[in-house]
Amino acid sequence: MLKVNGLCKYFGGIKAVDGCTFNVDRGSITALIGPNGAGKTTAFNCISRTAAPTKGEVWLDGERIDHLRPHKITQRGLSRTFQISRNLADMTVLENVICQSKIGGWRDLMKPAMSTQEIDKAMGILDFLGITRIAYEDGSNLSYGQKKLMDLAALLMSDPKIILLDEPAGGVNPTLLEEIVGHIRKLNDQGMTVLIVEHNMDLIMRLSHRIVVMAQGKVIAEGEPAEIREDPLVLDAYLGGVLEDAA
Ligand SMILES: Nc1ncnc2c1ncn2[C@@H]1O[C@H](COP(=O)(O)OP(=O)(O)OP(=O)(O)O)[C@@H](O)[C@H]1O
Ligand SMILES: [Mg+2]
Fold this sequence. Notes:
Branched-chain amino acid transport system ATP-binding protein; binds magnesium ion; 247 residues; alpha/beta; ATP hydrolysis activity; binds adenosine-5'-triphosphate; 37% helix; six-stranded mixed beta sheet; transport; Rossmann fold
Protein backbone atom coordinates (compact mmCIF):
# COMPACT_ATOMS: atom_id res chain seq x y z
CA MET A 1 0.00 0.00 0.00
CA LEU A 2 2.83 2.37 0.91
CA LYS A 3 6.21 2.14 -0.81
CA VAL A 4 9.16 4.18 0.33
CA ASN A 5 11.98 3.99 -2.17
CA GLY A 6 15.48 5.40 -1.69
CA LEU A 7 14.19 8.18 0.55
CA CYS A 8 16.82 10.72 1.65
CA LYS A 9 16.61 13.84 3.81
CA TYR A 10 19.78 15.82 4.40
CA PHE A 11 20.18 18.78 6.73
CA GLY A 12 23.47 20.27 5.54
CA GLY A 13 25.97 17.53 6.28
CA ILE A 14 23.55 15.49 8.42
CA LYS A 15 22.03 12.56 6.57
CA ALA A 16 18.93 12.16 8.74
CA VAL A 17 17.36 9.73 6.25
CA ASP A 18 19.83 8.13 3.91
CA GLY A 19 18.42 5.89 1.21
CA CYS A 20 15.56 4.41 3.14
CA THR A 21 13.50 1.72 1.36
CA PHE A 22 10.58 -0.23 2.81
CA ASN A 23 6.97 -1.22 2.15
CA VAL A 24 3.87 -1.24 4.30
CA ASP A 25 1.37 -3.96 3.39
CA ARG A 26 -2.31 -3.12 3.24
CA GLY A 27 -4.10 -4.09 6.44
CA SER A 28 -0.87 -4.56 8.40
CA ILE A 29 0.50 -3.00 11.54
CA THR A 30 4.09 -2.24 10.55
CA ALA A 31 6.52 -0.86 13.10
CA LEU A 32 9.40 1.47 12.33
CA ILE A 33 11.91 1.18 15.13
CA GLY A 34 15.48 2.24 15.82
CA PRO A 35 17.61 4.17 18.30
CA ASN A 36 17.20 7.90 18.97
CA GLY A 37 18.25 9.93 15.96
CA ALA A 38 17.82 6.99 13.56
CA GLY A 39 15.66 9.14 11.27
CA LYS A 40 12.20 7.72 12.02
CA THR A 41 10.43 11.06 12.58
CA THR A 42 12.22 12.60 9.61
CA ALA A 43 11.04 9.68 7.46
CA PHE A 44 7.47 10.31 8.69
CA ASN A 45 7.89 14.02 7.86
CA CYS A 46 8.98 13.18 4.32
CA ILE A 47 6.21 10.61 3.78
CA SER A 48 3.50 13.02 4.98
CA ARG A 49 5.35 15.82 3.19
CA THR A 50 5.65 17.97 6.31
CA ALA A 51 9.22 18.16 5.04
CA ALA A 52 10.39 17.87 1.45
CA PRO A 53 12.60 14.85 0.85
CA THR A 54 16.04 15.56 -0.60
CA LYS A 55 15.73 12.51 -2.86
CA GLY A 56 13.66 9.39 -3.24
CA GLU A 57 10.10 8.34 -3.88
CA VAL A 58 6.99 7.69 -1.83
CA TRP A 59 4.09 5.78 -3.39
CA LEU A 60 0.60 5.36 -1.96
CA ASP A 61 -1.76 2.92 -3.64
CA GLY A 62 0.26 3.06 -6.84
CA GLU A 63 0.40 6.85 -6.97
CA ARG A 64 3.57 8.81 -6.41
CA ILE A 65 2.89 11.28 -3.58
CA ASP A 66 6.28 12.75 -2.64
CA HIS A 67 5.65 15.93 -4.64
CA LEU A 68 2.13 16.56 -3.25
CA ARG A 69 1.27 19.13 -0.59
CA PRO A 70 0.47 17.70 2.89
CA HIS A 71 -3.31 18.24 2.72
CA LYS A 72 -3.42 16.52 -0.67
CA ILE A 73 -1.72 13.51 0.89
CA THR A 74 -4.26 13.53 3.73
CA GLN A 75 -7.05 13.68 1.13
CA ARG A 76 -5.61 10.53 -0.43
CA GLY A 77 -6.00 8.72 2.87
CA LEU A 78 -2.67 9.07 4.68
CA SER A 79 -2.60 10.85 8.06
CA ARG A 80 0.04 11.09 10.74
CA THR A 81 0.41 12.13 14.36
CA PHE A 82 3.32 14.14 15.71
CA GLN A 83 5.85 12.95 18.26
CA ILE A 84 5.32 16.16 20.22
CA SER A 85 1.63 16.69 20.79
CA ARG A 86 0.32 19.84 19.15
CA ASN A 87 -2.64 21.69 20.48
CA LEU A 88 -4.18 24.96 19.50
CA ALA A 89 -4.36 27.48 22.32
CA ASP A 90 -7.71 28.46 23.88
CA MET A 91 -9.63 25.74 22.15
CA THR A 92 -11.65 22.85 23.49
CA VAL A 93 -10.78 19.26 22.65
CA LEU A 94 -13.68 19.17 20.21
CA GLU A 95 -12.47 22.34 18.48
CA ASN A 96 -8.91 21.02 18.37
CA VAL A 97 -10.01 17.75 16.82
CA ILE A 98 -12.04 19.52 14.16
CA CYS A 99 -9.61 22.32 13.36
CA GLN A 100 -6.52 20.15 13.12
CA SER A 101 -8.29 17.98 10.60
CA LYS A 102 -9.14 20.63 8.04
CA ILE A 103 -7.81 19.27 4.79
CA GLY A 104 -9.64 21.26 2.16
CA GLY A 105 -6.81 23.77 1.74
CA TRP A 106 -7.97 27.32 0.97
CA ARG A 107 -11.58 26.11 0.49
CA ASP A 108 -11.81 25.64 4.27
CA LEU A 109 -11.53 29.41 4.66
CA MET A 110 -14.91 29.80 2.96
CA LYS A 111 -16.73 27.41 5.31
CA PRO A 112 -18.04 27.84 8.88
CA ALA A 113 -15.43 26.98 11.52
CA MET A 114 -17.37 23.89 12.64
CA SER A 115 -20.38 22.35 10.94
CA THR A 116 -22.96 20.22 12.78
CA GLN A 117 -21.77 17.32 10.66
CA GLU A 118 -18.18 17.80 11.80
CA ILE A 119 -19.26 18.08 15.44
CA ASP A 120 -21.26 14.83 15.18
CA LYS A 121 -18.35 13.08 13.52
CA ALA A 122 -15.84 14.34 16.09
CA MET A 123 -18.12 13.32 18.97
CA GLY A 124 -18.42 9.85 17.41
CA ILE A 125 -14.64 9.55 17.32
CA LEU A 126 -14.25 10.82 20.90
CA ASP A 127 -16.82 8.19 21.87
CA PHE A 128 -14.86 5.46 20.02
CA LEU A 129 -11.79 6.50 22.03
CA GLY A 130 -13.78 6.72 25.28
CA ILE A 131 -13.09 10.43 25.84
CA THR A 132 -16.40 12.22 25.26
CA ARG A 133 -16.17 13.48 28.86
CA ILE A 134 -13.29 15.79 27.88
CA ALA A 135 -14.90 17.13 24.67
CA TYR A 136 -15.43 20.59 26.15
CA GLU A 137 -12.23 20.74 28.22
CA ASP A 138 -9.69 23.36 27.21
CA GLY A 139 -7.04 21.55 25.15
CA SER A 140 -4.27 23.13 27.21
CA ASN A 141 -5.64 21.64 30.49
CA LEU A 142 -5.25 18.05 29.38
CA SER A 143 -2.89 15.52 30.84
CA TYR A 144 -0.13 14.28 28.57
CA GLY A 145 -2.00 11.02 27.99
CA GLN A 146 -5.27 12.79 27.18
CA LYS A 147 -3.39 14.86 24.60
CA LYS A 148 -2.19 11.66 22.96
CA LEU A 149 -5.82 10.51 22.69
CA MET A 150 -6.86 13.91 21.33
CA ASP A 151 -4.16 13.60 18.65
CA LEU A 152 -5.50 10.19 17.71
CA ALA A 153 -9.02 11.63 17.47
CA ALA A 154 -7.84 14.48 15.20
CA LEU A 155 -6.08 11.95 13.00
CA LEU A 156 -9.26 9.92 12.50
CA MET A 157 -11.33 12.94 11.41
CA SER A 158 -9.96 12.73 7.85
CA ASP A 159 -11.14 9.09 7.41
CA PRO A 160 -7.62 7.83 6.69
CA LYS A 161 -6.83 4.44 5.13
CA ILE A 162 -3.32 4.45 6.56
CA ILE A 163 -2.15 6.16 9.74
CA LEU A 164 1.41 6.98 10.78
CA LEU A 165 1.74 7.12 14.54
CA ASP A 166 4.89 8.72 15.98
CA GLU A 167 5.28 7.39 19.54
CA PRO A 168 1.53 7.30 20.30
CA ALA A 169 2.21 5.77 23.70
CA GLY A 170 5.50 7.53 24.50
CA GLY A 171 5.59 8.58 28.15
CA VAL A 172 2.04 7.47 29.03
CA ASN A 173 1.15 5.36 32.08
CA PRO A 174 0.75 1.55 31.72
CA THR A 175 -3.08 1.66 31.90
CA LEU A 176 -3.37 4.22 29.14
CA LEU A 177 -0.73 2.37 27.15
CA GLU A 178 -2.97 -0.72 27.14
CA GLU A 179 -5.92 1.47 26.15
CA ILE A 180 -3.99 2.92 23.21
CA VAL A 181 -2.87 -0.57 22.14
CA GLY A 182 -6.54 -1.61 22.23
CA HIS A 183 -7.57 1.34 20.04
CA ILE A 184 -4.85 0.60 17.49
CA ARG A 185 -5.89 -3.09 17.37
CA LYS A 186 -9.55 -2.17 16.97
CA LEU A 187 -8.75 0.26 14.13
CA ASN A 188 -6.61 -2.38 12.45
CA ASP A 189 -9.38 -4.99 12.83
CA GLN A 190 -11.64 -2.55 10.98
CA GLY A 191 -9.15 -2.50 8.09
CA MET A 192 -6.90 0.44 8.96
CA THR A 193 -3.27 0.08 7.88
CA VAL A 194 -0.87 1.30 10.57
CA LEU A 195 2.76 2.40 10.50
CA ILE A 196 3.94 2.98 14.05
CA VAL A 197 7.11 4.37 15.62
CA GLU A 198 7.61 3.36 19.25
CA HIS A 199 10.48 2.75 21.64
CA ASN A 200 8.46 0.40 23.84
CA MET A 201 9.68 -2.95 22.52
CA ASP A 202 7.12 -4.98 24.43
CA LEU A 203 4.33 -3.00 22.75
CA ILE A 204 5.95 -3.30 19.32
CA MET A 205 6.52 -7.04 19.62
CA ARG A 206 2.91 -7.63 20.70
CA LEU A 207 1.25 -5.30 18.22
CA SER A 208 3.09 -5.43 14.92
CA HIS A 209 2.96 -7.92 12.09
CA ARG A 210 6.16 -6.63 10.56
CA ILE A 211 9.06 -4.54 11.81
CA VAL A 212 11.40 -2.26 9.88
CA VAL A 213 14.54 -1.27 11.77
CA MET A 214 16.37 1.98 11.03
CA ALA A 215 19.75 3.15 12.23
CA GLN A 216 21.64 6.22 11.03
CA GLY A 217 19.06 6.96 8.36
CA LYS A 218 19.15 3.49 6.80
CA VAL A 219 17.01 0.39 7.04
CA ILE A 220 19.23 -2.23 8.68
CA ALA A 221 16.71 -5.05 9.10
CA GLU A 222 13.15 -6.03 8.26
CA GLY A 223 11.03 -8.96 9.31
CA GLU A 224 8.51 -10.48 11.67
CA PRO A 225 8.84 -9.68 15.38
CA ALA A 226 10.35 -13.09 16.20
CA GLU A 227 13.11 -12.66 13.58
CA ILE A 228 13.88 -9.07 14.58
CA ARG A 229 14.20 -9.96 18.26
CA GLU A 230 17.08 -12.30 17.36
CA ASP A 231 18.79 -10.16 14.71
CA PRO A 232 22.37 -9.38 15.79
CA LEU A 233 22.43 -6.10 13.81
CA VAL A 234 19.33 -4.90 15.64
CA LEU A 235 20.63 -5.93 19.04
CA ASP A 236 23.84 -4.11 18.22
CA ALA A 237 22.10 -0.90 17.10
CA TYR A 238 19.96 -0.80 20.23
CA LEU A 239 22.75 -1.80 22.59
CA GLY A 240 24.81 1.05 21.10
CA GLY A 241 21.97 3.45 21.87
CA VAL A 242 21.61 2.21 25.43
CA LEU A 243 25.33 2.65 26.06
CA GLU A 244 25.24 6.16 24.61
CA ASP A 245 22.28 7.05 26.85
CA ALA A 246 24.16 5.75 29.88
CA ALA A 247 27.18 7.86 28.94
N1 LIG B 1 15.37 20.17 11.24
C1 LIG B 1 16.52 19.52 11.47
N2 LIG B 1 17.72 20.13 11.27
C2 LIG B 1 18.88 19.48 11.48
N3 LIG B 1 18.97 18.19 11.87
C3 LIG B 1 17.83 17.54 12.09
C4 LIG B 1 16.53 18.15 11.89
N4 LIG B 1 15.57 17.24 12.18
C5 LIG B 1 16.22 16.11 12.52
N5 LIG B 1 17.56 16.28 12.47
C6 LIG B 1 18.59 15.26 12.77
O1 LIG B 1 18.29 14.13 11.99
C7 LIG B 1 18.56 12.94 12.70
C8 LIG B 1 17.31 12.08 12.76
O2 LIG B 1 16.36 12.68 13.63
P1 LIG B 1 14.90 12.10 13.86
O3 LIG B 1 14.21 13.04 14.72
O4 LIG B 1 14.30 11.76 12.55
O5 LIG B 1 15.23 10.75 14.63
P2 LIG B 1 14.23 9.72 15.35
O6 LIG B 1 14.59 8.38 14.83
O7 LIG B 1 12.84 10.16 15.19
O8 LIG B 1 14.70 9.83 16.86
P3 LIG B 1 13.84 9.70 18.23
O9 LIG B 1 13.66 8.22 18.45
O10 LIG B 1 14.73 10.30 19.26
O11 LIG B 1 12.55 10.43 18.05
C9 LIG B 1 19.10 13.37 14.07
O12 LIG B 1 20.48 13.37 13.99
C10 LIG B 1 18.54 14.77 14.20
O13 LIG B 1 19.35 15.53 15.05
MG1 LIG C 1 11.35 10.72 16.50
